[in-house]
Amino acid sequence: MPYQNILVAVDLGATTETVIERAAALARDNKAALHVLHVIEPLAITYGGDIPMDFSAIQEEIHSQAKQQLDRLCSGLGVDEANRHLVTGRPESEIPSQAKAINGDLIVVGTHARWGLALLLGSTTDGVMHSAECDVLAVKVDAPATEDGSA
Ligand code: AMP
Fold first, then answer.
1. Atom of ligand 1 nearest to the CA of 143
2. Taking a C-beta distance cutoff of 8 angstroms, is the pair 5, 108 a contact?
3. 3-class SS at 39?
4. Is the CB of 123 inside a 6 Å radius of any atom of ligand 1?
5. Which fold has domain 5-140?
6. Is the CB of 91 under 6 A from ligand 1?
7. Average pLDDT over residues 25-36
8. Pocket of ligand 1 contains residue 38 by CB under 6 Å
């Protein structure tokens, strides 16, 4: 049975195009609706409650930059405005709950090789796989190497 509502989650990083193009191709092949989601992680969560600062101006700037990037990506693929989703929270919980909200039957995320501490901590994709109520496709992406040769 073909998929009808595909949700692709993008972190707006270097591997986003690979992930979104795979999802767009699947949407075309299945004649499915394509929804694109980016989750903004609140600075208060990222840095804990340790820093007594008002992050609201920075947060607004991050939101506006993310919206521009999301719009640029989605316009290029012809994704309707109604199918572009920008929410704030933790990606591993927001991705499954957004999939549920749009009646999604497939979530597309990226995944790359992990080792060391990253392996122990787990990835967004691991978290999504555990709580999603629909199929999840983890697209292998090559993490760009950093200057010291690590991924
Ligand atoms: P990571 O665990 O950071 O390597 O991310 C793996 C995949 O999870 C990414 O390729 C995206 O598909 C998804 N993802 C991670 N962070 C976000 C985010 N902030 N918003 C949407 N999707 C995300």
1. 4
2. no
3. strand
4. yes
5. Rossmann fold (3.40.50)
6. yes
7. 98
8. yes
